[in-house]
Write a structure and sequence with these properties.
single chain, 439 residues, Rossmann fold, N-(1-d-carboxylethyl)-l-norvaline Dehydrogenase, domain 2, six-stranded parallel β-sheet, 14 strands
Length: 439
């Protein structure tokens, strides 16, 4: 089977590479000629563990190619995946479907035989039906079906998530489309991965339901962490004791500086917009969005409260600017709020992140970019952990102590045991646990 994937962003590139790993012939198409040239030369534009190896193997086998020419990719393709961006509209909560609809129009004009057009992008309920109408308007004689196939890829583990998913959701409205989609995912169903076949409308809503629920869990545990600090409880113990209940679980159940990235902030807002359009209250999701925004904004004042007036002349080392570990994505990351706010208070900032500093250099100004933890901490008055990189978990506190000028560690990911930090000569401030001063 030949597959075309429109868009070589995070979802499109991972999906195309993994389908080619299954043995399908895949052409990934993008209008960005520089990106296509880089991919053809083996340069992967995103940081995603395992992706480079999958792309290299498929390229070597000859069943993964990259192109700027949509016509050649669509020709003879049994399935065309649309994996373009659906950003939030400026000043609104709704998803902008401009790129999805334009891709559909172009495909409609090019297909010459029955094709399944698969929406891989995250889109509001009803988008598949709207896209079908738009494509028929562009080419009334085109023979096609539109399917919804939402992705559930976590940044940092996307390749494994695609190759070993919990389930595959397929939204179709015809037996012919279902047959094509089942053939595409036969390598996974043969390994007992459940295929959840629904209408396109249900598939679209499944994606938003999953992301909004996970965002709600993060918002919930963050508020419980605040309560733990107020009453003297330990969020590690509370989360473990509650999360071991099989009805609850431990995933997405650790406090932090607020959720970010390309999905949760955008998808929670889009869900709210959909609910408003249909006059259905979703106050729980609205509260999650508000609470998360407050969470992110409160990080810098919390740092300032620990440092006091000294923040005005302090050097603060920031460890991690990616919104989560194992990605270079800084979209809606806590650092976007924290760094400018601290600079406005008069602090100077040094930063180390294992993967995201290239994006950071394009975003932040007047920041010292460092090659490792200890150079970032050199002469720092405080060390602030914003991202849960494994590299940060194994920090050498003795070496860190020699580098810093001050004695303050603010850990917004709860990576360390308070006793270990205090014994090393630091005061330690984390989330949902009592602050610890020097012995």
């Amino acid at each position: 089977m030949k597959i075309a994937v429109i868009g070589t962003g995070y979802v499109g590139l991972v999906s195309g590479a993994c389908f080619s790993h299954f043995g399908f012939d895949v052409v990934c198409v993008d209008q960005d000629a520089k990106k296509i040239a880089s991919l053809e030369s083996g340069i992967i534009p995103i940081y995603e563990p395992g992706l480079e190896a999958v792309v290299a193997r498929s390229r070597q086998k000859g069943n993964l190619t990259f192109s700027t020419e949509l016509a050649g990719a669509v020709n003879d393709a049994q399935a065309v995946f649309i994996a373009v961006g659906t950003p939030t509209k400026a000043g609104e909560d709704q998803a902008d479907l401009t790129y999805v609809f334009e891709a559909g129009r172009q495909v409609a004009r090019l297909i010459t035989s029955y094709t399944v057009v698969v929406i891989k992008s995250t889109v509001p309920v009803g988008t598949a039906n709207k896209l079908r109408a738009i494509m028929l308007e562009a080419n009334p004689s085109a023979q096609f079906d539109v399917a919804s196939n939402p992705e559930f890829l976590r940044e940092g583990s996307a390749v494994d998530d695609f190759l070993h998913p919990d389930r595959v959701v397929i939204g179709v409205n015809s037996p012919e489309a279902e047959k094509v989609m089942r053939n595409l995912y036969q390598p996974l169903s043969a390994s007992s991965v459940p295929l959840v076949v629904t209408s396109s409308t249900s598939a679209e809503l499944i994606k938003y339901t999953a992301n909004c629920y996970l965002a709600m869990r993060i918002g919930f545990v963050n508020q419980v962490a605040d309560l733990c600090e107020a009453v003297g409880a330990d969020i590690r113990e509370v989360a473990l004791g509650a999360g071991l209940d099989k009805r609850i679980g431990l995933h997405y159940f650790a406090p932090g500086p607020g959720f970010g990235g390309s999905c949760f902030p955008k998808d929670t807002r889009a869900m709210i917009a959909m609910a408003r359009e249909h006059k259905v209250p979703v106050s729980i999701i609205e509260d999650v969005v508000v609470a998360n925004e407050r969470r992110r904004v409160a990080v810098a004042p919390r740092i300032a409260a620990v440092l006091g007036v000294a923040v005005q002349k302090s050097k603060i080392a920031i460890l991690g600017i990616a919104f989560k570990a194992d990605t270079d994505d800084i979209r809606d990351a806590a650092a976007l709020e924290v760094i400018p706010a601290l600079q406005a208070m008069g602090a100077t900032i040094s930063v180390f992140d294992p993967a995201a500093m290239e994006h950071g250099r394009k975003t932040f100004s007047n920041v010292e970019w460092c090659n490792d933890i200890y150079s970032a901490a050199q002469n720092a008055d405080a060390v602030v952990v914003l991202t849960e990189w494994n590299e940060f978990r194994g920090i050498d506190f003795a070496k860190l102590k020699k580098a810093v000028r001050g004695t303050v560690i603010l850990d917004f990911r709860n990576l360390y045991l308070p006793d270990d930090v205090v014994k090393a000569g630091f005061s330690y401030h984390s989330l949902g646990r009592a602050s610890r001063s020097l012995l």
